[in-house]
Each structure stands twice: as C-alpha cells, then as structure tokens.
C-alpha cells in the first residue's frame, strides 16, 4: 500500500502542475485553444489514474481514518480538476449550441421531474451515449467488508453507522432489494461507501457514497454516465436587494432536502449498495458477514447533478 500511496502522490503533484500550466495559458493575451484542450485531456487521464489508485488503496486499507485522509488531501485537487473538465469553465468559447445553465435546469425539470401525490420524483440525467455501467458487486463487497472490519474494532461507531442506514430505511429514503434475478431493462450498479469523521458531538461520523468509483480504468463510474453542469448560482446583487427590501429577514433550511426527492423506479437499481443484513447482530468473525443489497428510493447527495434537481423544482 505504501508504494501505491507514493505513486498517487506523484500523480497528484503532476495534476497540480498541469493546472498551473493551464492557468498560465489563460493569462496569456492570445489563448491557444488546442493547447488547452490537450492539457485538459491529460488532466482527465490523471483523474482516472487517481480514482483507480484510491479504489485500490481503499480495498487494502487497515488504518482507521484513511478514507478521511484520502478525501481531505485530494479535495483541493479534485475541486481544481473539475474546473477544467469543459472549455466553458476555462473561459474559452465553445460551441454556439452549448445550452446555458438555466436552460439545462429548465429542460431537465420539464422532462425528468414529475409531481405526484404531493411528492416530486426525478430521473437521473443519463448521457445520451453513456457507456454500460459495470456490474461491480465484487468490488463493492470488498470495499464494504473493509469498512465493516475497521468499524468492528469500535462497536460504538459501527452501531452509529448502522443506525444512520436503518433510520434512512425507516424514513423510506432507501429500501432492501429482495429479488434474486437481475433486471435486464435498466442499469444495475453498486456504490461503495465509507465513514468520514464529522465535527459533531452527536453524530461523529457521516456516510459518504462514492459515485465516482470505477471498476477498472476502462469502465465508467456512475457520475461519468450522468450529465454534469456547474450549478446555477443566484445573483448576489439580487440576494442583497431582497434582503434589504423588507423590515425582517429570515432564513430556513429543508431537513435532508435532497432525500425528500424520490428517485424514479427505473433508476434505483443504479444506486444499489451493500450493508449488514442485521446491523445489530454481533459480528463474531469479520470474514464471515452477511450482506444485504439495498438501494436508494430518494435522490443521492453524492450524485453530481443533485443541485440541478433541487433548482429545477
């Protein structure tokens, strides 16, 4: 694992250098579009390599907080990389046919979101030509088993983790998958998950679902099969004007807002995951655990289009 981590550090450094080079190109008076496109393509390859290395490290992991280490150390790099995935974010003019962000949200809301019995149901924004999602159950079994083995060393954390999943099941955000025959008319895909430390006295951990997980370099992740656009940001001037227009100002927050949006039934099998069949049963052996397939009935926060979904409502 030490060797993989060292290789990963090297690729991460190379990604940062590529980002700096792109920024230098953008500062020039005459920006070379071909040069920037080439640099972006190289960045995409680095992203795939980093993702594959992360998956391999997580499979072998034994240290208690390595997931948090991976997430924290790469957060800045990932944020920087995502700025460069399309030419629009680089300030380079692309095709005149590219739709504005607001048009994308409006079209998605009209075609993919319905209101029925007082609840919104949304479809996943699949790309028209997305590659088939791999049936990656074995990879996710390994990742889930690794998480359970580490949490089993701290029963309190294992119980908290299970409590979160059981609470989501109780509130019908997720559900068990009982059928033994796989559907053939829709994508079936499994999503790994892991704990990340949270600065809270009541809930010290949260569950992170890895929708960017790839089962091999040639297979796509779930996020790569979905449309991705920067979120539509509210105009700050308008926000300030509305804030000053009245005598009183109030703020509010919808509890578990994204989970209140139901996921279309045909897309639910693409959001499967594994957890203990009985989260409260004592684990006698970490190598002999019974896993239950579950799937999301609600929209996942880990899917990178979820902000468009809330804006389209």
TrEMBL record:
Query: Keywords for this entry?
Result: Coiled coil
Coiled coil spans: 12-56
Entry-linked InterPro entries = DNA/RNA_pol_sf
Its name, as the record gives it, is Reverse transcriptase domain-containing protein
What is the source species?
A: Mytilus galloprovincialis
